[in-house]
Specification:
four-stranded mixed beta sheet, 4 helices, about 20% helix, elongated
């Protein structure tokens, strides 16, 4: 029996500012945007960031730090994010200290949480975070060190899939896997929408999400099972002593 799986990423609530967490709590109470609040954090879909053309201007109240987390998850084919206060910090995303500083910009004063200097973060795609401001649904101007949603492309948020280096041999996987051989990324899987099929696809390395697909082969699992059974019978026939 095959389990129904969904891709979920576990992120620390430290990737969100206090203001953003408070905003998400209000939205969860209102039943808006599909947020689910837990004692340890939040659970939500990456729907708001899956559209390539999505920017925070489509929902002016969506905080930039939340948008960045959702965009990173969506860029890596993750459908849901579990924000948990006990989760480890994710390298490649800003992480905030639990204290406030005062920032003055064009005569306006903002309370801002500084970035945690001990966290492994040196910018995204060579871009350093900068002060981003927005107006929340209470009409209050907020600020956060981060990125304007429209300033980053999905390809810049993808995390390189570097798995363990395997020697030539036999291995068993559950559901599917990516293999890298030279310049090829090879996907071996059982497609969810095509049960009973084993699919082997070949794409350029680093272009797994955008293609092009250089070749694909579909093999019916029942054909494989039939061949295995035929081979078993032949071996039994060879081992049966003649009378």
């Amino acid at each position: 029996m095959k389990l129904n799986r969904i891709p979920v990423i576990d992120l620390s609530t430290g990737h969100l500012t206090v203001h953003t967490r408070d905003w998400m709590s209000r939205k969860a109470d209102e039943g808006r945007l599909g947020f689910m609040e837990r004692d340890e954090g939040f659970f939500l879909s990456t729907t708001h960031a899956r559209d390539e053309d999505f920017t925070a201007q489509d929902d002016p109240q969506l905080p930039p730090d939340l948008h960045l987390c959702l965009s990173m998850a969506a860029a890596n084919d993750v459908q849901y994010v579990l924000f948990d206060r006990d989760a480890d910090a994710q390298p490649g995303l800003p992480f905030y200290e639990e204290r406030m500083e005062t920032y003055v910009d064009n005569g306006a004063t903002y309370p801002v949480q500084p970035l945690d200097a001990d966290h492994d973060f040196d910018g995204i795609a060579g871009l350093d975070p900068s002060l981003q401001t927005w107006t929340d649904d209470a009409g209050v101007r907020r600020a956060v060190y981060g990125y304007a949603p429209s300033s980053l492309q999905r390809s810049q948020l993808r995390i390189e899939k570097n798995g363990p280096v395997l020697e030539d041999g036999e291995y068993e996987v559950d559901g599917g896997c990516w293999l890298t051989l030279g310049n090829a990324s090879i996907r071996v899987c059982e497609p969810e929408n095509d049960p009973g099929v084993l699919r082997i696809s070949v794409l350029p390395k680093g272009m797994e999400d955008v293609g092009p697909e250089f070749g694909a082969l579909d093999i019916l699992q029942e054909d494989l099972a039939e061949e295995i059974e035929n081979n078993r019978r032949e071996q039994e026939a060879d081992e049966t002593p003649s009378i």
